[in-house]
Specification:
Elements: E1 2-7, E2 10-14, E3 25-32, E4 35-42, E5 48-49, H1 59-71, H2 73-84, E6 92-93
Parallel strand pairs: 1-6
Antiparallel strand pairs: 1-2, 2-3, 3-4, 4-5
Amino acid sequence: MGKVLILANYIFLIYGTDIYEKRKHIHVTYAHRGYKRACKFWLEPDITLDLNKKGDFSESELNEIKKLIVEHKEILISQLELFYSNQPVKAIRK
């Protein structure tokens, strides 16, 4: 598991096994006082929530996460490209 971006209270990450999936995507977690939630968003062809992996996030939280992904898509894609090419990825904190 590699953290690629930390925004607000959300951690955007990728798992080693994700390299085998054809479509780029990102996992998002939110940890607060021991309660951890996670969801998955596809980054291509459009930014969409994986409805099978939306976790316990509320609709407003999911909308906020999607907005953050849209605003930072270039950074996320760049970080994923590093990961997919076996280069070191350091989490960017904003």
